């Protein structure tokens, strides 16, 4: 699958208040996620797309950008305005040192 035509945004360029959908699996989400993000695992997206905001741009994130790119392609083909978070959670937390929150007791060392 070619992701070169998938619209994307760098973590540092995500405007505050932007809707974020995290398509990672439950264990990845629990290890650490962007505060305020909505969790819809990629495998559930077609069933739960009604939970994705349709009137605003949505940033979609996964671990490194592959799953979220697939999600962005599907969402945009179905009337949404979605962009992929370049580099995924690794770029968000490790490269840009932007904050994450965790559902577990310990902060993750690797996302």
How would you classify the helix and strand content by structural class? alpha/beta
CATH topology: Oxidized Rhodanese, domain 1
Low-confidence stretches: 105-111
Count of all domains: 1
Order of helices and strands: EEHEHEHEH
Mean pLDDT: 90
Shape: globular
End-to-end gap:
24 Å
Number of strands: 5
How are strands sequenced across the largest beta sheet?
1-5-4-2-3
Biggest β-sheet strands, sense, barrel: 5 strands, parallel
Structure characterization notes:
By secondary structure, the chain is α/β, with parallel strands linked by helices. It has a single domain, classed as Rhodanese-like domain (Oxidized Rhodanese, domain 1), CATH 3.40.250. Helix content is 27%, strand content 14%. The chain contains four helices and five strands; from the N terminus they run E-E-H-E-H-E-H-E-H. It has helices at 26-31, 45-48, 66-77, 88-95, and strands spanning 8-9, 19-22, 38-39, 58-61, 82-85. A five-stranded parallel β-sheet has the order 1-5-4-2-3. The longest helix is centred in the middle third of the chain and has 12 residues, at 66-77. It is globular and about 30 Å long.
What's the short story on this structure?
With 111 residues, this protein is an alpha/beta fold.
Question: Which key features would you list for this structure?
Answer:
111 residues; Oxidized Rhodanese, domain 1; 4 helices
List the helices and strands and how they pair.
Elements: E1 8-9, E2 19-22, H1 26-31, E3 38-39, H2 45-48, E4 58-61, H3 66-77, E5 82-85, H4 88-95
Parallel strand pairs: 1-5, 2-3, 2-4, 4-5
């Amino acid at each position: 699958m070619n992701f070169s035509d998938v619209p994307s945004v760098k973590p540092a360029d995500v405007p505050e208040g932007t809707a974020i959908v995290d398509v990672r699996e439950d264990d990845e989400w629990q290890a650490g996620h962007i505060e305020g993000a909505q969790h819809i695992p990629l495998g559930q997206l077609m069933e739960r797309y009604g939970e994705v905001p349709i009137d605003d741009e949505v940033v979609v994130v996964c671990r490194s950008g592959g799953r979220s790119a697939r999600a962005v392609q599907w969402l945009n083909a179905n009337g949404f305005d979605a962009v992929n978070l370049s580099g995924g959670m690794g770029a968000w937390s490790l490269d840009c040192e932007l904050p994450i929150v965790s559902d577990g007791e310990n902060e993750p060392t690797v996302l």
